[in-house]
Amino acid sequence: MSRVSVPCHVKGTVALQVGDVRTSQGRPGVLVIDVTFPSVAPFELQEIMFKNYYTAFLTIRVRQHTSTHTPAKWVTCLRDYCLMPDPHSEEGAQEYVSLFKHQMLCDMGKVLELRLILRQPSPLWLSFTVEELQIYQQGPKSPSMTFPKWLSHPVPCEQPAPLLEGLPDPSRVSSEVQQMWALTEMIRASHTSTRIGRFDVDGCYDLNLLSYT
Amino acid sequence: MRKAQGSWEKRILKSLNSMCTELSIPLARKRPVGEQKELLNKWNEMGTDEPVLDLSLFRPVYAPKDFLEVLINLRNPNYENGDSHSFRTHLGLIQVPLKVKDIPELKEFFVELGLTAGQLGVDDSTQVPPELFENEHVRIGQKVLSEQDSAAAQQYIRQGSPTALRAELWALILNISSQPEDILYYEQLKTNVIQHDLLVDSLIYKDVKLTASNDDYYFVFEDYLYQVLLCFSRDTSVLGHFAYSSASPPKSYIRGKLGLEEYAVFYPPNGVIPFHGFSMYVAPLCFLYHEPSKLYQIFREMYVRFFFRLHSISSHPSGIVSLCLLFETLLQTYLPQLFYHLREIGAQPLRISFKWMVRAFSGYLATDQLLLLWDRILGYNSLEILAVLAAAVFAFRAVNLMEVTSLAAAEAVLADLSTLKVMPLLQIFLFATVT
After folding, report:
1. How far apart are CA B319 and CA B431, in angstroms?
2. Domain spanning A1-14+27-136: CATH superfamily
3. Per-position DSSP letters for A144-187, written without gaps between them
């Protein structure tokens, strides 16, 4: 199933914190990222892909287009998805993650806006976010091919033509040729992948110094 | 982590380059025909040969303690280190918060080492009648070998391998079979050694002379070590392991063709620069295999599966950083008084145990005990047992260590491990210590 990237506009992260951000000591543990699609009509979401950077839990809310004139509501489509099994340690902290349509709690038919809510309860990390966010919608379906009639309705076996004098049996010849062809295909396909192991260039391995790049 | 590995590699390259320019010795040169013939004649007794170059001019590219300093200085820029007495700082030397197993998880992982299962190394001692465990275990081992079942061998060897079956079992687990093409490949590597002389060869000579030749158990294998390690340096198939290692092989250009990609080669051809003690990875294997090409294949497979993780920086659970952190965490959690005491006298435990783990205890334990330990490395496909054993050794000598007052004295208490029995130590630490 092909996918097509949807251009999105990722707004800056907003930290949610109790009290005044400037005066309180601790760091925020909740961040919100809004993703809008200014140039695209409401689409069906297929996949969300991003690189994690020390986010422990992810919640996604979506606002969909409704046909009636009721204002669109925010619906939670992914709740507390765990990205780091242990928020205090490095496991899963910098991994690439893909989330698919079928993992979502609701139907993602006509997406207008997305809101990603990131949570990192551990005080050990200085900052956390998700990077390289990419949204995909379903690509065009591959064109269905109509089978030619003779493939879908094979004709019954015909009677073989009578053998001409002095010539070998054509069905035997054809089976032998087929076997030979199969052998050549096998040999061509199984070219060995073992390297010869040459480390020099044309017999010369005169080196000056190691290179740093 | 990758950045740290990259800058560590740069340091090694700089060191090798400066050695090259100081001594005016080329990184690689083609041997003249006369020298080639001579080397071919002396192939089986390179240990007796006086090397052409004065080995005292060479110094090893790095030693494990240099590597330890790099690991101690690993910092995650996103990690809150804070002031030194908050709960966030690590008491040990490693400051990277990787996930390591604790004892309940280790008990589950190493369940076959438990007190209720028979073990070679414990239940084959002279006081235990062999009918209880040993005979049956040997019989099962022979059956596994006759079936040539690699997965069953790996499961079987978790309880230890009988000495007579060990060589074949390891070959079965590592998927080594001596086909004619393998012997031919080894002969080709030998030809490569004879044709080209590498600077790395002198490093290997020096390392063998300094470590294995001085060891009571391994000095007899000196010639084998040269044969294996010199060929290992020329083996380009080892380059394949860089696909799953965080390290990268050093590059160089043919003389006069700097910058042209068609003349870029890897140096050494296998991409691995040996450090002080590298030859100890090969030495114990010489007890098991006497045929050079099979010995070579076993060593190569052990290196690309396990040993490379002991000298490169990565977040893998069997990587040296995780092993160090596992060792420190185990010690802090289960022997807090000892850890605190050692830290107070300036003897951070990792400074003593690092060299054991980097060499996989080779050269520190008695050979039969070492082979029992390496049985479990193969059986569990993980190096974590090295960290557990290091912690178990500290636990065993805890009473003596509590009385020392300096790093030198602590090192003296732990200097000689040759009398230790590995399996009882591991069992006591994992399964019999009151937590």
Report:
1. 24
2. Galactose-binding domain-like (2.60.120.260)
3. PPPPPHHHHSPPPPPPPPPPPTTSPPHHHHHHHHHHHHHHHHHH
Cα–Cα distance, A119 to B52 (Å, whole number) = 64
If you write DSSP's letter for every residue of B102-141 in order, what string do you get? -HHHHHHHTGGGSTTS--TTTTTSTTS-TTTTHHHHHHHH
Domain chopping of chain A, boundaries = 1-14+27-136
* Reported ipTM: 0.71
Cα nearest neighbour of B261 on chain A: A201
Q: Which residues of A touch B30 (CB under 8 A)?
A: 204-206
Closest CA to B61 of B352, B268, B217, B353: B268
The partner residue sitting opposite B265, judged by closest CB among A127, A205, A213, is A205
* Residues of A with Cβ-Cβ distance to B88 under 8 angstroms: 123-124
Contact assessment for residue A97 and residue A16, using Cβ atoms and an 8 Å cutoff:
no
Nearest by CB: B253 against A86, A91, A211: A211
Bridge partners (DSSP) of residue A100 are A47
> Does residue B3 belong to the interface with chain A, where contact is any CB pair within 8 Å?
no
C-alpha closest to that of B360 among B261, B282, B268: B282
| Token couple for B339 | 């850890």
Closest CA to B280 of B350, B328, B384, B210: B210
Would you say B296 and B171 are in contact if contact means Cβ atoms under 8 Å apart?
Answer: no
Q: Per residue of chain B (435 residues), what is the pLDDT tens digit?
A: 888 888 888 888 888 888 888 887 777 778 888 888 888 888 877 766 656 556 677 777 888 888 998 888 888 888 876 555 555 556 788 888 888 888 889 999 998 888 888 888 887 777 777 777 888 888 999 999 999 999 999 999 999 898 899 999 999 999 988 888 889 999 988 888 888 888 888 888 888 888 888 888 888 888 889 989 999 998 888 888 988 888 888 888 777 777 777 777 888 888 888 888 899 999 999 999 988 889 999 999 999 999 999 998 988 989 999 999 999 999 998 899 999 999 888 888 999 999 999 999 999 999 999 999 999 999 999 999 999 999 999 999 999 999 998 889 999 999 999 999 999 999 999 888 765
User: Which residues face A35 on adjacent strands?
Assistant: A10, A114
Q: Give the Cα-Cα-Cα angle B368, B371, B374 (nearest 5 degrees).
A: 155
Q: Which amino acid makes up residue B297?
A: Q
pTM of the predicted model, to two decimals? 0.83
Report which of A44, A102, A52 is spatially closest to residue A82, judged by C-alpha positions. A52
Q: Does B249 touch chain A (CB under 8 A)?
A: no
Q: Can you state the angle between helices B163-173 and B367-380, rounded to 10 degrees?
A: 30
